[in-house]
Known about the structure:
- It is built from ten helices and eleven strands.
- The radius of gyration is 19 Å and the shape is globular.
- The strands form four sheets. A four-stranded parallel sheet has the order 4-3-5-6, sandwiched between helices.
- The chain has helices at residues 6-18, 54-64, 80-93, 115-123, 135-148, 159-162, 164-176, 198-208, 218-236, 242-250, and strands at 23-25, 41-43, 71-77, 100-107, 128-132, 154-157, 180-182, 257-258, 261-262, 278-283, 289-295.
- The protein is of the alpha/beta class and 309 residues long.
- The chain has two domains: 6-48 and 198-262, no CATH class; 56-183, Response regulator (Rossmann fold, 3-Layer(aba) Sandwich), CATH 3.40.50.
Amino acid sequence: MSDSGSVLTAVSVPIAREHKMLLLNTTGTGAPFFTKDNPYIVLLADPVSTVWPKYIADFIKDQGVANGIKRVAILYSTNDFTNTQANALRGFLKQSDKVEIVFDQGVPTSTSNYNVLIGNIAAAKPDAVIELGYVGNDIAFLRNLQDSGEQFPFLFTIYSGLEKEEVQKNVGASGLANVFTYVTGAYIDYKPTTGMTNEEYRKVWEATYPGGHVEYGINAIAGYMSGLVIESALAVTDSMDQLALRKAIFSLSGKLRTLDGPFELDDMGGQIGEITPLGQFVADGKDNVKLNTIYPPAFANAKPVFETK
């Protein structure tokens, strides 16, 4: 079973394949991991990265353009997770002749100072800025953006929604206000057929880790979700043979529903259920923000707020 995230999972994929051992992949969503000739991988608790940015692009094309969002800047970290998302987002946006990509740059995942990059982005005069990185990248970017005084009508970061408590602790509520992000199972009230509801699980989590010393976010959800899938597969597998285990996990596809949503696999073992809708943080009192779901309409509970320049 791999550790979480695409950077760490990348090491596991070739080792598992070489030794013909099934890799139970928690949240390594990079597209290169999944190929038709490798049956030794299944993604358990996150959709593949090519699926994630669809709702960003659809929202911009469906609602953003009508609100003046036509020029887009993409800044991404060059790892399997965010590079895959950037490629997918670029492709989705280019399907519309109403949206222009005016800035598109990859930077090392180790980047910790975004001041020059923010200046370069501002010079391109985008209406939307989409920064795709890990939690440390988001924190550094949002801090530098606050210091710069720059504002964009639409601003998106990934980990603001995935690990809200960690990001808010480091950038403050004001740094998250009106930021768009992904909405995970931590903020959607799915009705699971297996395991605890989100509310039940959060109570158990907070009792186990009192005082907020271990933040409740996507990794808390993903670990539990993975355990549920493995438990369910072991209950129906014909044997402990590696491909028999894979067959058992695939037998759950389209049938299992947890606090993270419906579990569904493509033929290469990539997760295509457990979608990540588009959300936005809005001020909730003096020192806090809450995450609203904005898109798609079937999940939306609020209307978007566009920053003024």
